[in-house]
Write a structure and sequence with these properties.
heterotrimer; A alpha/beta (258); B mainly alpha (368); C alpha/beta (347); A: 258 residues; alpha/beta; Rossmann fold; 2 domains; six-stranded mixed beta sheet; four-stranded antiparallel beta sheet; 10 strands; C: 347 residues; five-stranded parallel beta sheet; 41% helix; disordered N terminus
Chain lengths: 258, 368, 347
């Protein structure tokens, strides 16, 4: 589905992402992990065409760079970790914007109504229902909690109905209960055929639990890429994090035994 | 209003239009010279009949090949006398220009506030109006004009400079602070305005014989505007305003966040360019006709947002009406408060605007 | 710490602007000098208008007996300040156009070593180095000319500036003519300081005689009205109301200023002009040789066609500040208005 070739991002003399190569296929959930400053978010941002890069990002055989922005949005959706909102839009308004790419073009301002518009409103309804935001659909986004806000934008990206979902630390600021909610929602979303997810996470346990494929990065480069069982092993992790990662994890979780 | 449709419901639209029309009538009927309402109406009716008669005469002349008899049956005498002069030649064109200038500035302000996700963005706070005024002053000082169109030189230069100012301010802002925080934009706007005003002073010193009226360019005045001015404003509103209104959804996306807009498929670069150009067009035309009238674009969308919410599908058309109403009332105050002395309209809008600015800034800092 | 960096950048820009402003001054002042020739009436009157609000209480001028050329000259200036000169001044800087005109009128133009940027009459004054005036008054620039005396008006300069200049060692005298009588006082005062008492008296007598003659000849009885246009419609109408020289001259000539109910210089409503329907219009808009002349522009205004002055094409354009400066040329202005209104044969 997505093929990344020689992806490199430079800011001046600094190389943030260094010749990255990987692929994501239908049904896969790729977790990009690595210590702070490894270039995870930058790599994701480059795939989303949010920053200048060299190399190629191919989606179903076509280069992402060359796609029209509305076509791109029908292929790839993005959920950011932070949302700084300024105006009192309603939850529903934000979610409905996810349909932008589907109604872009000649009829972009005709809004909801007959025909295709019906499809738009159904997608928004479904997305709101899936994320549990139906009851708050009229609420101003300025009054939402962090978790509700993240679910609102999740509803937006669900309504957008992309084939590939890019998530940048989607639960970074969320309480455990929302972390679980969001990851389970995405897991459910992924069950529909023809979809894939790439997410940047720093929590290795989450990566291990939900990822079908792991990309471990350090200093902008790939350290290892493959199934969790092959990548999240001490030979790779310990040099990257410069500690006994497995030991630390077991120690932390061991507290909960008994 | 039900939020199912994010567009204006017909009733709300009608209500806004009715308020705007009522204020328009008020502004035509009330002025420095008192004219009874009945006289006002009969003069306007006479004027309408006269114009309609003229048009009919021309039309029937074209159709019947000469005589124009059908039209002359309709032809009423052109209303004459002091009251007719005041209403038809002074008040009506002026109020029309005021209303459309207000609408244009408010629309431009609303669009910028959405585009930059910043409720304090406006032609006057960003320095775009000063930039446009600088363009107009430059055109006058260096005699830049187009043959046959004496007014076009200042207008084109005002539009061009408005656009260049916007690009410069935003480029600077992006460099300093990619997230375009409120403080950054406002500080840059202040610095830019200072810079432009010093340039303007230099030009005025260079070409003092050509530019007598620096207060006009800094405070604005819509006195003496004509039907031709109104037509130009109408044209700008139809073209630029139409384009902006068609981008309501994109502006919604920008108002939620530029990155988010890109992610949902908005062609961010193109939309931004289109909005910046159309906004510059509106501001440039307004400044070249009425000088820089501050804060209309800041205050109106803000007040309108409190009424109809931030959705640009409602906000933009409501701002059109709101801006017209706001500026017409400000102009009315300027005309009649100290009668027969007339206040500069910019003084009135700035008074209201400065207070509003502080309130908005305070509120945006509180939750931002 | 992005914010700090950003703040620093902001401060740097402000500093740069400030520096540029300092460095730029000599340049602007030269260009100012170059363009003074065509300095506009309205700009000046606008300055005067803004300053007028800060006008100081009028002081009666008591002049001592004509001083001998040898003895020290004592004068009370028009703000009541005591001024003593050992001998008549020979190096003078005048910041205000009217004071320049007075100096030349009493034959003391050769003592001028510096003038304000707006001083443009008579033509010889343009050869004298210009210094910044009004709010941009530059003390260093004035000191460099080593004047014995600096004359400025209370209208366009401030008392603070006078105090600063005196601290810097310049003898300052302030004129403050609010009416024609004030002009006489100013002429007399300046004459005394320059040791030209007699010339000053001559000028004053000449003015009084001319005005008296005009007043005598003027047949008007105040029924015909005049509207003074200081700023044209395009930029917002401005008129000269009560207690302006224009108003005073109008009364002298038997005309009624149709905005006599407005105090001083003021923005006014277009409707009011139409309503008051003046018989004459006097405009001081300058013409640059492009587009319609100020008279043509007024004649072409929509809605003005019923104004008597427009119907009769009774519009006069005075371009030399004859009626807006408290100077001897008020007589010329009055004469021009008289000729315009009454023509060769008194109506």
């Amino acid at each position: 589905m997505l093929h990344v070739e020689d992806l490199t991002v430079r800011y001046g003399d600094l190389t943030i992402v260094d010749h990255l190569n990987f692929a994501v296929e239908e049904g896969q959930w790729l977790m990009i992990v690595g210590p702070n400053g490894a270039g995870k978010s930058t790599a994701l941002n480059a795939i989303a065409q949010g920053t200048a890069y060299t190399g190629r990002v191919m989606f179903e055989g076509g280069e992402m760079k060359k796609k029209k922005s509305s076509d791109r949005a029908r292929c790839v959706g993005v959920l950011m970790q932070n949302h700084f909102v300024e105006y009192a839009f309603s939850v529903e308004e934000v979610a409905a914007l996810g349909r932008y790419a589907h109604s872009a073009g000649a009829r972009r301002n005709t809004g909801k109504g007959a025909g295709r518009g019906g499809e738009d409103s159904r997608a928004v309804e479904d997305a709101l229902a899936l994320t549990g935001m139906i009851s708050q659909r009229r609420q101003s986004i300025l009054t939402l909690s962090g978790g509700e806000l993240q679910r609102t934008f999740l509803a937006q990206v669900f309504a957008q109905d992309p084939k590939l979902l890019l998530l940048d630390e989607p639960t970074n600021h969320l309480d455990l209960v929302y972390q679980k909610q969001v990851f389970e929602l995405i897991g459910k979303w992924l069950q529909t055929p023809g979809r894939a997810v790439i997410s940047v996470v720093h929590d290795l346990s989450l990566a291990k639990a939900y990822g079908t494929k792991i990309l471990l990065m350090n200093h902008g480069r790939e350290v290892a890429c493959g199934p969790a069982a092959e990548v999240l092993v001490p030979e790779h992790l310990d040099p990257v994090y410069q500690m006994d990662v497995g030991g630390w994890m077991r120690q932390m979780l061991g507290q909960w035994n008994g | 209003m039900k939020a199912r449709s994010d567009r204006f419901s017909f009733i709300v639209f009608l209500a806004f239009a009715a308020v705007a029309f009522a204020v328009f009538c008020l502004c035509v009927c009330v002025g420095s010279v008192g004219i009874p309402l009945t006289d006002t109406l009969s003069v306007i009716w006479g004027g309408v009949r006269y114009q309609a008669g003229r048009i009919l005469t021309v039309l029937s002349g074209v159709v019947s090949g000469g005589s124009g008899a059908a039209g002359s049956a309709w032809q009423a005498a052109r209303p004459e006398g002091l009251q007719a002069s005041i209403i038809l030649s002074v008040r009506l064109p002026r109020v029309l220009c005021v209303a459309m200038t207000g609408a244009a500035l408010a629309l431009a302000g609303g669009a910028m506030q959405g585009l930059l996700k910043n409720p304090l963005a406006d032609g006057s706070t960003l320095g775009v109006s000063s930039g446009a005024a600088l363009g107009a002053v430059t055109a006058i000082a260096f005699g830049i004009r187009f043959p046959g169109l004496p007014f076009a030189g200042t207008m084109v230069m005002a539009i061009l400079f408005a656009f260049l100012s916007l690009v410069l301010i935003l480029a600077l802002a992006y460099r300093l602070d990619y997230s375009l925080a409120t403080n950054t934009i406002i500080l840059i706007g202040v610095i830019f305005s200072m810079f432009v005003s010093s340039l303007m002073n230099i030009i005025v010193t260079f070409a003092a014989d050509h530019i007598q009226h620096i207060t006009f360019w800094t405070m604005g005045s819509l006195q003496g505007t004509s039907y031709q001015n109104a037509l130009v404003l109408l044209g700008a509103l139809l073209v630029c305003g139409g384009i902006i209104l068609r981008h309501a959804r994109e502006l919604n996306a920008f108002a939620i966040g530029e990155d988010n807009a890109r992610h949902i498929g908005v062609d961010v670069r193109k939309v931004k360019l289109v909005i910046l150009i159309t906004v510059s067009g509106l501001i440039g035309v307004c400044v070249s006709i009425g000088g820089s009238i501050g804060f209309v674009g800041l205050v109106t969308p803000h007040m309108v947002r409190m009424l109809v919410g931030p959705n640009h599908r409602r906000l933009l058309p409501a701002s059109l009406f709101g801006g017209a109403v706001f500026l017409m009332l400000a102009d009315l105050a300027a005309r009649v408060l100290l009668d027969p002395i007339e206040l500069p309209i910019g003084v009135v809008t700035s008074l209201v605007g400065a207070v509003a600015f502080v309130v908005i800034f305070y509120r945006s800092r509180k939750h931002g | 710490m992005k914010r700090n960096k950003f703040l620093a950048a902001g401060i740097a820009v402000i500093l740069a602007c400030a520096l540029a402003a300092c460095g730029g001054q000599p340049g602007t002042q030269q260009t100012a000098a170059a363009s003074t020739a065509a300095e506009t009436a309205v700009k000046e009157t606008a300055v005067e208008t803004t300053e007028a609000s800060t006008e100081a209480p009028e002081t009666s001028e008591e002049t001592s007996a004509a001083s001998e050329a040898s003895g020290p000259i004592k004068v009370t200036d028009m703000l009541g300040r005591e001024i003593t000169l050992e001998k008549p001044a020979t190096r003078v800087v005048a910041l205000t156009a009217s004071d320049c005109e007075i100096l030349f009128a009493i034959g003391a133009g050769d003592t001028l070593v510096g003038r304000g940027t707006y001083c443009d009459y008579p033509a010889e004054v343009l050869d004298i180095p210009a210094v910044q005036s009004g709010s941009e008054t530059n003390i260093e620039e004035i000191l460099a000319l080593e004047p014995q005396l600096l004359i400025m008006s209370a209208m366009s300069q401030t008392e603070e500036q006078a105090a600063q200049l005196e601290n810097a060692g310049v003898q300052v005298v302030i004129s403050d003519a609010q009416d024609i009588a004030g002009v006489y006082t100013a002429i007399e005062m300046i004459g005394k300081l320059m040791g030209k008492d007699e010339n000053a008296a001559e000028v004053i007598d000449g003015m009084k005689t001319s005005f008296a003659e005009l007043e005598e000849k003027a047949a008007g009885d105040g029924t015909e009205s005049i509207y003074f246009e200081v700023s044209p419609l395009e930029y917002g109408l401005y008129t000269a109301g009560a207690h302006t020289f224009m108003d005073e001259v109008a009364n002298m000539l038997g005309l009624r200023n149709c905005f006599a109910d407005v105090e001083g210089w003021s923005a006014i409503s277009e409707e009011q002009v139409l309503d008051r329907n003046p018989d004459y219009i006097l405009t001081i808009t300058l013409y640059y040789g492009e587009g319609p002349t100020p008279e043509e522009e007024i004649l072409s205004r929509a809605g003005w066609e019923n104004v008597t002055a427009v119907k009769n094409k009774a519009i006069l354009n005075l371009v030399g500040n004859e009626l807006s400066r408290p100077a001897p040329r008020l007589v010329d202005g009055a004469q021009m208005l008289f000729d315009f209104v009454y023509g060769g044969d008194a109506k």
